[in-house]
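Sanity check record (used in CI):
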Amino acid sequence: MKTMTRSIVALFMATSAMAQNMSYGADNFYRSNNVTIQPVSFPSQYHTNVAGNLFFLKDLNCSADCPAIVVGHPMGAVKEQSANLYATKLAEQGFVTVSIDIPFWGASEGEPRNGVSPDLYAEAFSAAVDYLGTQGFVDRERIGGLGICGSGSFVISAAKLDPRLKAIATSSMYNMGALSRNGLQHSQSVDQLKAMAAEAAQQRWTEVDGGDVQYTSGTQNHLTANSTAIQREFYDYYRTKRGEFTPVGSTPELTTHPTLSTFTKFVNFYPFSGIETISPRPMLFISGDQAHSREFSEDAYSRAGEPKELFWVPGAGHVDLYDRTELIPIQRLTDFFGTTLA
Ligand SMILES: *[C@@H]1O[C@H](CO)[C@@H](O)[C@H](O)[C@H]1NC(C)=O
Ligand SMILES: *[C@@H]1O[C@H](CO)[C@@H](O)[C@H](O)[C@H]1NC(C)=O
Ligand SMILES: *[C@@H]1O[C@H](CO)[C@@H](O)[C@H](O)[C@H]1NC(C)=O
Ligand SMILES: *[C@@H]1O[C@H](CO)[C@@H](O)[C@H](O)[C@H]1NC(C)=O
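Expected output for Alpha/Beta hydrolase protein:
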């Protein structure tokens, strides 16, 4: 019996090891010997707590004038996925950084769990600015924002309303509004959009009548023969040791999946409308030139005012920039924030 269990475990481990691709220095859970990490939490403007991790060099010495960066995680993820990695790498370069869980996700408050509210997601970036600016060691005039994947659109949304964010960078950005309205490369028809809204509305009836919450989209829990290349790309990160993480209070089955009845809130989310008003604050859009999401960075770049830069990582796909340390352009980010938050 024991032997059998052991061989099943071995088989499982072999299968999951085969599934993950650790090339180009994939290191999602990287910890730096040079950097202190402290769990923190702070209130949003709506009096809900936002959870984060604060990172800074162990030998940091900048009494009250440190530059700081708020870092947001991919949509469906939590701060332990990609955001902590970027925050750690930038802390090594001398920035104070804070990775945040967006509301309804991870250790941040908000019900229902895995709920969607793009306004409250953007608010979390401003709440992090409140927090950093009241710590005594951060210069209020030197705070920037960095959003990965969906958070790229949330930090832009925040920056339009909050000029305290002095410089904005995105990596592998997903415009969650455009994605929900149009699909990738405008693959979704108006009829499909209406069907999605109708399904969410029907589910709302179910919930108000006392039925169970349902979840949607996100990363497949199991691959099938029909799984698309994009589904496999996400699975390799979110469903293997490479990047999987289950926050307290969630379960592996629920991670990455927003609730079906709130997901349609993204349909009314237009983060690039008015993006030019962020100028003259600088913007940097980073994308792999092979990324299935590259249309969003191109669109944002074309609409943004000056100064702006579209930085292509040759050969990189969308998820590659979540954790592959040999592809994430930390040096470019360091120069960007070093200059713009000088
Ligand atoms: C692993 O990922 C890298 C980076 O995306 C890619 O170039 C390579 O083809 C992948 N390897 C396999 C076996 O899928
Ligand atoms: C910190 O910086 C100040 C001013 O730059 C300097 O006077 C002080 O000696 C430094 N402290 C340490 C511990 O390095
Ligand atoms: C850690 O700090 C040491 C001493 O300052 C430095 O030589 C090293 O490059 C740092 N490592 C990283 C990864 O930043
Ligand atoms: C794959 O797609 C085919 C054709 O749409 C369908 O008949 C089949 O059930 C699907 N298989 C799985 C495992 O989803």
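Residues 61 surround 2-acetamido-2-deoxy-beta-D-glucopyranose (ligand 2) (CB under 6 Å). If this sentence no longer matches the regenerated tokens, the check is flagged for review.
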